[in-house]
Structure formats: structure tokens, C-alpha cells
Design goal:
This protein folds into 2 domains: 52 residues, Homeodomain-like (Arc Repressor Mutant, subunit A, Orthogonal Bundle), CATH 1.10.10.60; 138 residues, Orthogonal Bundle (Tetracycline Repressor, domain 2). Helices cover 59% and strands 0% of the residues. It contains 10 helices and no strands. The longest helix has 27 residues.
Length: 217
């Protein structure tokens, strides 16, 4: 059988190539022309599978969200569910930080995002949280995760000690932060998450209604 004269395209292959570009070059550098070049095809060939660049990005983010684990809510323990979701969510975004600004706009019609939002909301309501609080808790967790995944606090400091030593008496070790950025960023996220959950514990005692067996919203 003769080999095809051009690469065989699929939505999955297109999205994988798009994510490779975003990871390597940044979100702003993705274009349909550059994507076609990455795949070795004409731009017109892409439109047989996807409608627009945003269509591609929605598919990419949907794939990323498929890796976010919300199974912790199955235990009925809302705190465990939130903690495991937040950690999994952060890990998924931290692996692809350049896509975060697009993903941060909301779930739109992305199936994987909506399924996870439904599970989180249902798990919280099922644990006695009033629906309005469940919505705000889901949003607050997302703010914490997205902020943590989008940038590194520790890597934002210059590694030249002379920048700090004469003018900033309390930052004389700031030049060392970038060497320990992964640990600092992870531990800072864990601290914020723990304090957030502790605060929610106190709030839950005041506002929660009876628990239910509901798993959806």
C-alpha cells in the first residue's frame, strides 16, 4: 500500500502539537500558521478538523483537565475532597503554566472542566454546604490554585546579592530564593491551602445544613 503523501491529521494530534508550541514558546506564539508548520501541513488542512485557534485551545485545556482528580469527594469528606482536588489541579497546571491564562477564564463548554465543577459542587453541597457557599468555595480554591500555578514567587527575585545588601536590610538572603524555588513554592501553596481549609472548617460549623447522599449539583 502506498504511503500517504502528507501527514495524517487528527484532533488529538493537532492538540498535542499545539500544547507543545505553547509549552515551548508561550501562549501568544500559537497561531494556526505556526501549528500547521509544526505538523508539516497546509493551514487549510487544519480547518478540516478544527474551526479556530480557540477551538484548539479549548481542546488542549480539556485534555489537561482530564488529568485533574476529583475522586476525593467520593469519600463524603469535603475537606479531603478539596485538598486532593486542589493539589491535583495545581500539578496539572504547573506542568503547563503558559496555558493557564486561557484556562483561567472559566470552563466555557469544556466537558472535562464542567464534569469536575459539577463533582466539586455536588460534593460540597452533599457535605452540608449551602449552594452559595459551595460556589464561592469552588471559586476560591480555583483562585488559590491558578495563582500558584501561573508564576513563581521565589523565582521573581534577582540572584545578585548586591541588589539587596545595601538598601533592603530584610532581604539580604533574597538572592538565594531561586535556588530553592520549587520547595518554597510548593510549601507556600500547602501553607495557604491548610489555612484556607482550617478557616472553612470553622465556617462549616456555622453555616452547614444536614449532609445528603447527593453526588451532583
Amino acid at each position: 500500500m502506498a504511503r500517504p503523501s502528507r501527514p495524517i491529521l487528527s484532533r488529538g494530534g493537532i492538540c498535542a502539537a499545539a500544547l507543545a508550541i505553547v509549552d515551548r514558546d508561550g501562549l501568544a506564539e500559537l497561531s494556526m500558521r505556526k501549528l500547521a508548520g509544526e505538523l508539516g501541513v497546509q493551514v487549510s488542512s487544519l480547518y478540516e478538523h478544527v474551526k479556530t485557534k480557540d477551538d484548539v485551545l479549548h481542546e488542549v485545556t480539556n485534555t489537561i483537565m482530564e488529568g485533574v482528580d476529583v475522586s476525593g469527594f467520593e469519600t463524603g469528606d469535603w475537606r479531603h475532597g478539596l485538598a486532593s482536588w486542589a493539589r491535583s489541579y495545581r500539578a496539572a497546571l504547573a506542568a503547563h503554566p503558559h496555558i493557564v491564562p486561557f484556562l483561567a477564564h472559566g470552563p466555557a463548554r469544556r466537558e472535562a472542566s464542567l464534569r469536575r465543577a459539577d463533582t466539586v459542587h455536588g460534593g460540597l453541597v452533599g457535605a452540608g454546604w449551602p449552594p452559595r457557599y459551595a460556589t464561592m468555595i469552588g471559586a476560591s480554591t480555583k483562585y488559590l490554585v491558578v495563582g500558584s500555578a501561573m508564576s513563581s514567587f521565589a523565582r521573581g527575585f534577582d540572584d545578585d546579592v548586591q541588589v539587596y545588601i545595601e538598601r533592603y536590610a530584610h532581604l539580604t538572603d533574597a538572592h538565594r530564593l531561586s535556588d530553592h524555588a520549587d520547595t518554597i513554592d510548593r510549601d507556600s501553596f500547602e501553607l495557604a491551602l491548610e489555612m484556607f481549609l482550617d478557616g472553612l472548617n470553622a465556617l462549616h460549623a456555622r453555616v452547614a445544613g444536614p449532609k445528603s447522599s447527593a453526588t451532583g449539583s
